[in-house]
Specification:
With about 450 residues, this protein is an alpha/beta fold. Helix content is about 40%, strand content about 15%. The protein has a five-stranded mixed β-sheet with strand order 2-8-7-6-5, sandwiched between helices. Bound molecules: ligand F0G.
Length: about 450
């Protein structure tokens, strides 16, 4: 008995009872599809995609228990029992008092921004998210990035790259005054930084500071359970705490939240706004009727709310998160074996390939990340997405933002793909990496006004 295994393998805490068949494509078919899609992976038809790593949003596989709950959905217009089930799950597991359902995360962002932001206000946050910042701007506010500098450096291995730099926040408070800051916007497991967590210690310091200045913390809790997993694994004193306990503690340090349940909460559609303040709730309950639907369904079917209630509980299972993040880590390590430059440390919801390092001969105006996403699709039918200059969009003066991070996101849906799929993805990326020097950039030939990355069209530079 001499066998020693340093770290025992993770595996999924579930098995499959139904599978979805995929269409396989040829290189010629993919090149044609890509051209028709204006070299934007958002404009591909999913039928033409083999492994779809565009997003982890709404692409999760529901469990047998969620499907069973789905069938019990109460489709009453008002006062649906399913609403109360969802409300109870949010109050129990997250600890927020009042809940407004919305069709997805941005529905909650719209309502919250309209209620809390006045023209001329400033909203500091730990890196922007596309829809979140746009709703802040549409409501008359201005976003200010207060994430630590490490977050903008793809290679920096700091374990909590989602942390806030309190000095940056203090400068903003001194410059504009606390009364111009309706809230600090805090995302857990920061998407645009590569799925990087904020530490409990940092959040506690932020709580202390904001209480001293009478400023709220609004929590974008879209991937809170994944953040909790990293706190459990990396932060002193948390190894013996459960994800459930850690999530509850994170939420207790904030005043309200917006949530896209399409990620962590393991459903295909849905979201909510939560607050501990009666006044905010009262106004939100009124506004939701204008944009989403009555305050007991907010654009969702009763069955969706039942699935969310069950999904929230499942997302807090320690074995689930271990396998979920274990799979992401597996793909990241495979890529590193091929020498592919990725954002480090490996994040929670996907692998972010550093397109600037991958295609150093391209300038950011040649859209390196957009180009790379197109090349990977052409190679194997794996669909990824751009998270760089196209996603960053333009400022209010119409000038391009030039984000430091120019990334391609390989986002992994929860409970959907196998380890063998991850091997195919890593090999395809390696093949493209091998011929990287021959790759030329692209030019944008159509640009929509809002959130241009969704619908922009491109042409290859000859
Ligand atoms: N906040 C974060 C951190 C998100 O990642 C998203 C969506 C939203 C808010 C908006 O939620 O889509 O339900 O309206 N992110 C998706 C993605 C689109 O692919 O990262 P939504």
């Amino acid at each position: 008995m001499t066998l020693k295994i340093e770290k025992r393998a993770w595996a999924e805490p579930y098995k499959m009872k139904m599978v979805e068949l995929l269409k396989m494509t040829t290189k010629a078919q993919r090149n044609k599809a890509l051209k028709e899609a204006g070299y934007n992976t958002f404009l591909l038809r999913s039928e033409d995609v083999y492994i779809d790593l565009l997003t982890d949003s709404g692409t999760n596989a529901m469990s047998d228990r969620q499907w069973a709950a789905f069938m019990t959905g109460d489709e009453s217009y008002a006062g649906s029992k399913s609403y109360y089930n969802m409300e109870r799950a949010i109050q129990t597991y997250y600890g927020y008092k009042y809940v407004i359902p919305t069709h997805q995360g941005r529905g909650a962002e719209n309502i919250l921004s309209q209620i809390l932001i006045k023209k001329g206000d400033v909203i500091p946050g730990n890196m922007y998210f596309t829809t979140t910042r746009l709703h802040q701007e549409l409501a008359g506010g201005k976003f200010e990035d207060i994430i630590i500098d490490e977050a903008h450096d793809a290679l920096n291995e700091f374990p909590f790259k989602g942390n806030v730099d309190l000095n940056k926040l203090e400068k903003i408070v001194n410059k504009y005054g606390a009364d111009k800051i309706p809230y600090v916007s805090i995302a857990t497991n920061v998407n645009m930084a590569g799925g990087q967590p904020i530490s409990m210690e940092n959040l506690k310091e932020l709580r202390k500071y904001t209480l001293q200045h009478g400023i709220r913390i609004i929590h974008d809790m879209t991937r809170v359970a994944e953040n909790a997993y990293f706190i459990q694994q990396r932060e002193k004193g948390y190894l013996l705490k459960t994800i459930k306990e850690i999530v509850h503690e994170i939420c207790s340090l904030t005043d309200g939240a917006t949530m896209s349940a399409k990620k962590d909460a393991l459903v295909n559609i849905g979201g909510f706004l939560a607050t501990n303040e009666w006044d905010v709730y009262e106004e939100a309950r009124n506004l939701v009727v204008v944009y989403e639907g009555l305050h007991t369904y907010g654009g969702l079917a009763g069955r969706d709310m039942e699935a969310i209630a069950v999904g929230i509980k499942e997302s807090l299972d320690d074995y689930h998160q271990k396998a979920r993040i274990g799979q992401v880590e597996y793909l990241g390590k495979r890529m590193q074996e091929y020498g592919i430059p990725i954002v480090k440390p490996i994040g929670g919801h996907g692998i972010f390939v550093d397109a600037k390092a991958f295609l150093p001969h391209l300038s950011q105006d040649d859209f390196p990340a957009q180009t790379l996403a197109a090349e990977i699709y052409a190679d194997s039918g794996v669909r990824t997405m751009e998270r760089g200059i196209v996603s960053a969009g333009r400022n209010s003066k119409g000038e391009n933002y030039y984000p430091k991070l120019e990334l391609v996101r390989f986002t992994i849906p929860r409970r959907v793909y196998t380890q063998a799929h991850m091997d195919v993805v890593a090999e395809s990326t390696a093949m493209v990496y091998d011929r990287r020097k021959k790759i030329k950039g692209m030019k944008m030939i159509y640009e929509p006004k809002y959130l241009r990355f969704f619908q922009a069209r491109f042409e290859k530079i000859k």
